[in-house]
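Async update (no meeting this week)

Hi team, since we skipped the sync, here's where things stand on the single-chain job. The sequence we agreed to prioritize is pasted below, unchanged from the tracker. I ran it this morning and attached the output directly underneath so nobody has to dig for it. Comments welcome in thread, and please keep replies under the output.
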Amino acid sequence: MVDPVCIVTGVGPGTGSALARRFAKGGYRVALMARNRQRLAALEQELPGAKAYPCDVSDAQQVDKTAELIERDLGAPSVLVHNAVAGAFGSFLEIDPQVLNRNFQVNTMGLLYLARRLAPAMVQAGKGAILVTGNTSALRGKPLFAGFAPTKAAQRILAEALARELGPKGVHVAYLVIDAVIDVPWTRERYKQKPDEFFIKPAAIADELWHVAHQDRSAWSFNVEVRPYAENW
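Output:
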């Protein structure tokens, strides 16, 4: 049997790398997507069967071209994890409106481009999963997140529209709300006074998404939330 294929977008040192490692451990050949090939080189060498694909998911033509390369090299993907994210901090008076637009292109339009390109083959196969990593900005708008929260809220609603359309056709779409600060070097430095239980581990996020991707069809989730046990919510 041919090993299944998983695409992970937004592969960086945190969640993206953890996702790639988890799906590789589970027997998948992993297509590693990020804008810069150098960010992917070490992980490509680390994971047998993984392959790097530089791609800006906000560019529909790049998405189509990269999908063709993945299908040629690895085969048709049965799992897509859209983890690429663009964000910004600042009030609505402070941010450059173009920043909001750029974030929308990556977070929401990127999901649309990927789903349009990859979902038809999943439907034809009668199986597949499209998973999206989100956060609490998808559920609420705070003053300093005006350049980010609207794009994540739109992303979640788009994912829900996909789930309602693709679910009956055998394709599982789910949205993971990460209500936590992810444990990566820059967040450790920024919140260095915080204890370990303040952070969520990238590997734990990856384990949950692995679980969601392989849920029994009789018990599919859409809205999934994860947070540290000590999180005040």
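Quick observations from my side:
DSSP finds seven helices and nine strands in the chain.
The mean pLDDT is 95.
Reply here if anything looks off.
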